[in-house]
Design a protein that fits this description.
single chain, 392 residues, alpha/beta, Acyl-CoA Binding Protein, binds ligand LQSD347O, FERM/acyl-CoA-bd_prot_sf
Length: 392
């Protein structure tokens, strides 16, 4: 069941598979504080090693020897026979560590893996992102590698506010990602914000047919946009790198996993803007966090911290801002190696029975908003922002 990736890992790093069995023995031999600090690093190195490209036999022997020394202490098993070449090489490497203390071996293991990770990171980043990005997008940077399609909103100077063009490009990128050979798809933002939501200047571009026509075409765009998230067939992950506002928050209920930086906030100030909830949040939020918490966000515009959003189930996990990118992408690279068909099918099993309902909710929310956009409350709020009289 582990698939080809699992088989390769077992062949290269057989020691890693036994790590969980070794931990308690290791813990017995250390002071409590030192144990807690370095045990975590060691465990994370054991996970990281599975993601490395083949570092060559010499390094693999070093890793093996350090692992054995760190978990079992000095080599005291009988030396394999001369014809048992592989086991003899492993025994020699372990035995060469003599009486190196377990703690030092563990530290050396962590340092070695960390060195290997940074050199493999830099070799996999030979091409800068600008060279790898898919053509045809002006408001996004879309890249596909390591079985991950990453869609990055790219208007950092405008806090990644979503223009009509960006809505259309995100839909295009999602449709392409649903058919490409990536296993998972990630939406994230460039700069200090994840997204400040709908670009309020979208409302200033009134066609000759008048404001009703604008409200109608905006409702169609909104409905099509949210439909793409409802129908997206592969695991969809949000990497919320900073504050998120409005529609960038509401659609999170349609993602499969949401990772947030500790700097992220989640804000849906619809009443302040004379508007009403969209992105199926009128259904998904009460379901995720309960009606009382959902009402505080969707009716009263209560802004949540990342920790609060996680406690309420909107966010899967929060990472410290300083290590957010590293930790999230390490995690996602590991997930992207899981069998893609199994992941798609699991998503279908989890989500499909809700799809029809979600489409109906999306249609209804879009219809209500079409009316809201024509109200004085909404017009005044948008004008106040655009004339710099109000900010959130
Ligand atoms: C087809 C239609 C579908 C509609 C779907 C319904 C969607 C609903 C929503 O998403 S509601 C939420 C709408 N968003 C907002 O109301 C946020 C408005 N922005 C702000 O309040 C602030 O900009 C801020 C709190 C996000 C950030 O404040 P600050 O850190 O002080 O930065 P600036 O305000 O100086 O922003 C820098 C620059 O970006 C412009 N900008 C930011 N957000 C938006 C936005 N949502 N719309 C338009 N422009 C935005 C801001 O004006 C600045 O531009 P400037 O440098 O002055 O040219």
């Amino acid at each position: 069941m582990a698939g080809a990736a699992g088989r390769v890992v077992r062949r290269w790093y057989p020691h890693v598979l036994r790590s969980s069995l070794q931990v308690p023995a290791l813990q017995l031999h250390m002071s409590k504080t030192a144990m807690r600090a370095s045990q975590k690093d060691f465990e994370s190195a054991l996970s990281q090693v599975k993601l490395l490209k083949d570092p060559g036999n010499e390094v693999k022997l070093k890793l093996y020897a350090l692992y054995k020394q760190a978990t079992e202490g000095p080599c005291n098993t009988p030396k394999p026979g001369v014809f048992d070449l592989i086991n003899k090489a492993k025994w020699d490497a372990w035995n060469a560590l003599g009486s190196l203390p377990k703690e030092t071996a563990r530290q050396n293991y962590v340092d070695l893996v960390s060195g290997l990770s940074s050199s493999s990171d830099s070799s996999s980043q030979v091409k800068p992102e600008a060279d790898r990005k898919q053509p045809g997008y002006e408001t996004l940077v879309v890249t596909s590698e390591d079985s991950i399609t990453k869609i990055m909103m790219n208007r950092p100077a405008k806090k990644n506010a979503i223009t009509t063009q960006m809505y259309n490009e995100i839909m295009l990128a999602l449709k392409a990602a649903s058919k490409d050979d990536s296993a998972i798809t990630v939406l994230t933002g460039n700069g200090d914000y994840y997204s400040s939501g709908n670009d309020l200047s979208n409302f200033t571009d009134i066609p000759p047919e008048g404001i009703e026509e604008k409200a109608k075409s905006s409702a169609i765009l909104l409905r099509d946009f949210v439909d793409c998230f409802i129908d997206f067939p592969k695991p969809l992950i949000a990497a919320v790198n900073g504050p998120a506002v409005g529609i960038s928050v509401t659609i999170l209920g349609l993602f499969d996993t949401v990772y947030a930086s500790s700097r992220a906030t989640f804000h849906t100030p619809f009443s302040h803007l004379g508007q009403s909830p969209e992105g199926c949040s009128s259904y998904t939020f009460p379901k995720i966090m309960g009606p009382a918490k959902a009402a505080e966000m969707l009716i009263f515009g209560k802004k949540l911290t990342a920790a609060e959003a996680c406690a309420q189930g909107l966010v899967s996990e929060v990472f410290p801002d300083s290590t957010f990118q590293k930790e999230v992408w390490t995690r996602l690279k590991a997930y992207s190696k899981l069998p893609p068909n199994a992941m798609r099918i699991s998503k279908q099993v989890i989500r499909n029975r809700e799809k029809e309902k979600l489409h109906a909710i999306n249609a209804e929310e879009s219809r209500v908003l079409q009316e809201r956009w024509l109200s004085d409350e909404c017009t005044n709020a948008v004008m106040n922002f655009l004339t710099r009289k109000a900010k959130l």
